[in-house]
Amino acid sequence: MKKFGKKGLGLLYGVLLFSFSTYAMLDTFVIPHPMQSVEINAIAETTSTSGIKESVEAAIQSKLGNNTDTTVETDSTTTASENTDTAAETSASVVEGGTVIGQYSDSKTSITLKQYREYDSNIYVADVTVSDASDLKTALANNTYGRNITDTTSDMAENNNAVLAINGDYYGARQSGYVIRNGKLYRDTSGNRDVLVIQKNGEFKFVSESETSASELLQDGALQVFSFGPVLLNNGEISVGENDEVGMAMASNPRTAIGYLGNNHYVFVVSDGRTSESAGLSLYELASFMKELGVKDAYNLDGGGSSTMVFKGEIINNPTTSGRSGEERAVSDIVYIGGES
After folding, report:
1. At residue 42, does pLDDT exceed 60?
2. Which residue of 148, 168, 206, 341 has the lowest C-beta tally within 10 Å?
3. Structural domain includes residue 7
4. Residue 309 contacts by C-beta under 8 Å, 6 or more apart in sequence?
5. Which pLDDT score is estimated for 56?
6. What gap in Å lies between CA 107 and CA 131, rounded to an integer?
7. Where is the composition biased (Low complexity) (predicted)?
8. Sign of the C-alpha dihedral, residues 30, 253, 251, 302?
């Protein structure tokens, strides 16, 4: 009986240990933990552009046809037309290269979408000029901040009436890393990363989380803060080595990045990868490509299966999730441009 009792206790201990480990994994990576609802008008409280309407098109217009199968110190009061002129001067290579596959414009925003074929990969570049940095917005899945709160990029784009959207830094997959979105602070826990700060004047700034707090960044005028990386370009110079990679990721991957050219002029970049049609990019290749576009500062966002670009309601690239081509991964956040209401 004693012998049987010891075996029984051992079995019970093993079952309890397995159950606890399983729950811990589910709690960390699967079980949703909503923490705070998003204040939709947070931008209006923190920027000088509170008079600009936040609402966008109620219905996304037109489609891109068969293209889906091919898979962030200036004066913020500058007008959209002035921005467009300056953008053309500062990034002629963006205008001249690639194949135009979509366009959008209103009184505040101009977007030209192009497809490139570089490094044996399909790369999609949205050349974006806005009238003010507050027009470059972010959204959280289900409009809720929390762990494991996710939705697809396309669904979040539709829910926020976005003309253009890319996946963000997937903050919800980690328990650390600064999160400031639309001028509101959600997380002040350092992940010891180099973060991208998009300031109220539209400029990019790169800061180490180990050297400052998110609260200080907010006080200094941060509009958006992303914690992923690494920094790809800093003042026009490549910041990654040829063998640098994110954690244990493969050398060539689908990628998502955002770049700054000057005067409220940005590029959103998404590349395909992990398929026979598109090999994917290394970080160095991504940085080199964006430098060729004339980008001054660039930052790597979450890639791999998360990499998704949506334009006018259509998924532009070919997302690859868990080896399945054409399937979106649900993520925690997007970066987007809205249209004029």
Report:
1. no
2. 341
3. no
4. 124, 126, 153, 164, 165, 166, 256, 268, 270, 315, 316, 317
5. 31
6. 8
7. 68-82
8. negative
CA nearest to 109, candidates 127, 92, 94:
127
Q: Is residue 2 included in any domain, yes or no? A: no
pLDDT at res. 120:
97
Tell which residue, 182, 79, 67, has the closest CA to residue 126: 67
Q: Which two tokens stand for residue 215?
A: 């609260």
Token pair belonging to 33 = 């933990």
pLDDT tier at 177 (50, 70, 90 boundaries)? very high
Under a CB-based contact definition with an 8 Å cutoff, are residues 53 and 299 in contact?
no
Pairing of strands 33-37, 297-300: unpaired
Bridge partners for 110 per DSSP: 105, 129
In the sheet that holds 194-199, the strands lie side by side as 184-187, 179-181, 222-226, 194-199, 204-208
Q: What total of structural domains would you count in the chain?
A: 1
Span 87-101, average pLDDT: 61
How much is the CA Rg of the chain, to the nearest whole Å? Answer: 21
> Are 258 and 242 contacting, i.e. CB atoms less than 8 angstroms apart?
no
Q: Evaluate whether residue 227 is within a structural domain.
A: yes
**Predicted confidence (pLDDT) per residue in 219-275, tens digit:** 999 999 999 999 999 999 999 999 998 875 667 899 999 999 999 999 999 999 999
What burial class does residue 275 get, using C-beta atoms within 10 Å of its C-beta: 0-12 exposed, 13-18 middle, 19+ buried? middle
Enclosing H/E stretch for 237: strand 237-238
Strand 204-208 and strand 194-199: pairing?
A: antiparallel
CA distance 315 to 326: 9
- Residue 103 belongs to what domain range? 32-338
Cα-Cα end-to-end distance for the chain: 78
Alpha helical stretches, state H, the chain:
2-29, 42-46, 80-90, 92-96, 153-159, 214-219, 283-292
